[in-house]
Amino acid sequence: MYIEMTDNTGKVSDDMQQDTIKLLNFAASFIHLPEHKEMAITYVLNDEIQKINQDYRGKDTPTDVVSLEYEPETISFDADFDMPEALQAELEEFDSFIGELFISIEKAQEQADNYAHSYEREMGFLAVHGFLHINGYDHMIEEEEKVMFALQEEILTAYGLTR
């Protein structure tokens, strides 16, 4: 999986970014995501994530991670349409982008302190949590929450990023 990283804070080390890429590629293989998929992560401060949270979720408060799942429009063709290979390749490439995450490094540090675990663990947790959201997992109802939270913990533990 290709992951585009942007650090709007200037405070996230190259090592942290590379560790996040490795963790999310592990998570992608864990859920059997096709290798050609792509996503983006942008590290931000609380003021920027508050604006994003307001714009996309209608909540005027900083949060830890905002996940924007990309849902391509369905394109339909007549049953007798013989799609050229070049067009098929373009459609597959168009369908490769799954979404983007915005992670507040300030909230990550605050939560790491509150939960008494490392900043690295919290950043990994937020990345996996957001990654699962852009892959269709949610926690709005209790049954979905159990599935998503168990899966994210299973991924983090299998990767070796424990509390």
From TrEMBL:
Keywords (A to Z) from UniProt: Cytoplasm, Endonuclease, Hydrolase, Metal-binding, Nuclease, Ribosome biogenesis, rRNA processing, Zinc
GO biological process per UniProt: rRNA processing
Note on cofactor: Binds 1 zinc ion.
Keyword Lipid biosynthesis listed: no
PANTHER family: ENDORIBONUCLEASE YBEY, CHLOROPLASTIC
UniProt lineage: Bacteria, Bacillati, Bacillota, Bacilli, Lactobacillales
Gene3D superfamilies xref list: Metalloproteases ('zincins'), catalytic domain (3.40.390.30)
Name of the gene encoding the protein in the UniProt record: ybeY
Name of protein: Endoribonuclease YbeY
Family recorded in the similarity comment: Belongs to the endoribonuclease YbeY family.
Chief localisation class: cytoplasm
